[in-house]
Amino acid sequence: xxxxxxxxxxALLVAATPALAADFVWYAGASCTGSVIARSPGVNPxxxxxxxxxxxxxxxxxxxxxxxxxxxxxxxxxxxxxxxxTIVTGSxxxxxxxxxx
Length: 101
Prior knowledge:
mainly beta, globular
């Protein structure tokens, strides 16, 4: 699957809740490899971040997350950070890769 930035061949949205000024980088490859598709710096709590150009990403790196960040499949019932996240990160920094499929 691909992750969408409006995180899968369907796609993911990231909701920085409750991440204070977290930074996100969207990658074409799994495990935060490949070309950088987009950057979302300084995301405040409660903000749903997505690619407005309809692009998609396979993985997203995050940093500066004090509690957790939520990643959603875009399109359908989870579009625009709705109906529960697909991936929930811990605090700090890391990489989230969209599930296969």
